[in-house]
Amino acid sequence: MLKFLTRTRHHGKMDITDILSWLWLTLGTAVIAIPIAWAMLSSLKTEAEVNSFPPSLIPQSTVNTQVEGYDKDLSVWKWTQPNGEIKNVALVRRIGIKATVVDIDNPEKTLQVPTSEITQLKDVNFQWQNYTDPLERFDFFTYINNTVFVTVVATILTLLLNSMAAFALSKYKFRGKNAIFMLILSTLMLPLSVIMVPAFIVIVGLNLADNLWGVIFATVATPTGVFMLRQYMLTIPDDLIEAARVDAASEFRIYWRIVLPLCAPALAVLAIFSVIWRWNDFLWPLIVLSSPENYTLQIGLNAFQGQFSVEWHYILAMTVIALIPVTIVFLVLQKYITEGVAGSGVK
Amino acid sequence: MKNLSAFLFSILDKFMRFIELPTVYLQKKIGVQRMGYLFVAPNMVLFSLFVFLPVGLAIAYAFTGGTNMLIWDRPFIGFENFSRLLNCGSYMDPASCEFDLFWTAIHNTWWYTLLNATGTLVMALITAVVLNRLTKGKALFRSIFFYPVLLSPVVVGLIWKWFLARDGLLNSLVLDLGGERTIFLLEVWWSRFWVVYVSIWFHMGFFTLIILAGLQAIPRDIYEAAKVDGTSEWRQFWRITLPLLTPNLLVVAVLLLIRSVQVFDEAWVLTDGGGPGTANTFIVQFIYQTAFSSEVRLYGLASAASVLMGLALLALTLIQVWLAKKAEY
C-alpha cells in the first residue's frame, strides 16, 4: 500500500508537489465519503441512539436483561468496583449521583453505587427494522414501485424514440432535416426551471396531472440522447442500409433489425444515463404529482422528511435505499459513465 | 435469465412486426427518404408539447393576469406583471420592492452564483490537475470524485442535513475541538455557507471530468520540453497548463453560471424550503412558490419571472456558444 502511495513519476523521489497532491486526494476522498458513510451508519441505529448526543460511531444498542423480581427488563451496566474488579449489574433506578443496582446472578441483593463507577453496556446492533418499517407502516413500498415503473418505462421509451429520431437525422435526406436537428439541440438551452409553469399547464391540458405518465412523457425526448445516438449512427456505413433495401427490407425493419443492434454500445450508455436521470428526478415529479399514492421515491422521501422530521432513523434508511441503485450502477459501469460524461459533456 | 430475455425480446419483436405493417404502407406512399419525417415525428411531438409550446405559453402567460389556468379565461394586462416585478424603490434593497421576495431571491441567487461558480471552478481545476499528474489510481480517484454527481438532490440534501444537524457529527466534532454547538442550518450566514459548500460537494466531480478532458488534450511533448529545460512543475502549471486551458475554463465557467442561476433542488431540501426565513430562497423557488404552492396561483407573475430568468440564461448561453466557437480555433 505504501509503495503504491509513494509511487510517482519521478522514480523513488517524493517532492513537495507529490505530497500536496496526495494530501488533496486523501482530504477530498474523506470529505466526500464521511457524510455518506455517516448517513449509512446512522441509518442502522435505533431511534434512541440516533437521537443521542454525542453520537456513537458504530450502531449500538443498550443491553437489557430480565431479572427475577422485576416486572420490566433492566439495562445492564458495567460496574468497575473500587478494588478493580469488574462486574455486570442491572440498573434499578438512579437518583443524582447514586444508582441502585442489582447483582444479576444474585437478584435479591440491591447495591448502592456511585454513578461514576458504572458505564452502560452496549452491543453492536444493526437496526434493520429501519429499512422494513417504512415499507410496511408508510407508503414507501408504493413510492419505490412508482419510481421503478417511471424509470423502466421512461428508459425504454427514451431508447426507442431517441434512436428513431437519431436514425432519421443521420440516414435520411429530407427537407428541413437540419432545421429539425438545430431545434432539438436548442432544447438543451431551455432548462425545465424556465418552462416549468407552462409545461405543467400543458400537462393539465392533456389531463395528465397527478399521473405517472405525465412524469414519463415530458422526459423521454432528450436532446442528449438524440445527439449521442446520431453521432454514433453516422459511423454506420450507408452501404449496409442500401444492401438491406436491395433485399426489400422495409425502412422500419432496417431500423429495428440492422441499425438498432449496431448501436448497442451507444444505447447502453444512454440507458445508463436515463436510468440515473429518471431515478433521481425531483423538480418535475414534484410539480406534476400531488397525491401520495402517485409519489416517486424522491418526492415521497422529501414529503416524509417534511412531515416526520424527527424520525431520522427512517429518513436515513430510505435515503440509503434511494442511493443504492445508482451506486450499484456506478460501481459496475463507472468506466462508461465517466467516459460518457467526459466525451459528451452531459450528465 | 437468458431464456427470459430471449422471451421478452421475441415478444418485442412480434410487437415491432405489428407496428411495421402500417409503416410499409406509408413507405410506398411517401417514398424512402421521407420516411425520415416518420422516424423523427414522435420525438418532435414530445418536444413540441413539453418544450416549444411551453416557451410560447410562458411568454403569453407573462402578459396575462388573474388566477385562471386556461389562457382564454385570462385577461391581457400588457407589461403589468413585469412592471410589478421590477417595481422597486432601490434594486439594492429588496424591502423597497413591491415583490420583495423576488428581489431577495435575485440577491440570494446572485451571491450564490458568484460563490458557487468561483468555488466549484477552483476546486474542480485543482482536482483535475492533481488527477492528471497521477500515474496510478487515476481511474479510482476520478470515480470517487465523480460519485456525488450521480446522487439525487433529495439524497444529498438529507445526507448533509443529517451531518449538520443539532445532534449531528459536525457538532460533535466542533464540541470535541472546544467550539460551540451551532444549529448551522438555522443561522443565516452559516446556512448560506453550507448551501454553497454542499453544491460544490455535489457538482464538482462533473466539472472536474470536463476540465480533465481538456487537460488531457494538451500535447504531452510541451511538458517534456519544459522538463528538459528544468522548468518546475509549479511554473509549468502557470506558464503552460493555465494559458492552454483558459479557453476551456471559460466555457466551463459560463456553464457553471448557467447551472448556478437555476439552483433549487438540493438547497430546497437542505434548508427546508429556503430558510431560515428567506436567507436561501432562490429565483426558481420564487417561481415555483408563486405558481404552485401559494394560496393564489399567480401563473402570469410566475411566467413573467420565468421569462426574465430565461433571458438572463439566454444571454449566458450566447456567451458560452461564442466562447466555445473561439476555443475551437
From TrEMBL, chain A:
The keyword Chaperone does not apply. It is a multi-pass membrane protein. Residues 144-333 form the ABC transmembrane type-1 domain. GO terms for biological process: transmembrane transport. It holds the Pfam family BPD_transp_1. It is found in: Cell membrane. It comes from the Bacteria. The chain crosses the membrane at residues 21-41, 148-169, 181-206, 212-233, 254-277, 312-333. Its main location: membrane. Keywords: Cell membrane, Membrane, Transmembrane, Transmembrane helix, Transport. One of its GO terms (cellular component) is plasma membrane. Belongs to the binding-protein-dependent transport system permease family. This is Carbohydrate ABC transporter membrane protein 2 (CUT1 family). It comes from Marinomonas alcarazii.
TrEMBL record, chain B:
Keywords: Cell membrane, Membrane, Transmembrane, Transmembrane helix, Transport. Residues 106-320 form the ABC transmembrane type-1 domain. PROSITE patterns: ABC_TM1. GO terms for cellular component: plasma membrane. Gene3D superfamilies: MetI-like (1.10.3720.10). SUPFAM superfamilies: MetI-like. The chain crosses the membrane at residues 38-63, 110-132, 144-163, 194-215, 236-258, 298-323. This is Carbohydrate ABC transporter membrane protein 1 (CUT1 family). The keyword Cell division does not apply. It is a multi-pass membrane protein. Belongs to the binding-protein-dependent transport system permease family. It comes from Marinomonas alcarazii. It comes from the Bacteria. It is found in: Cell membrane. One of its GO terms (biological process) is transmembrane transport.
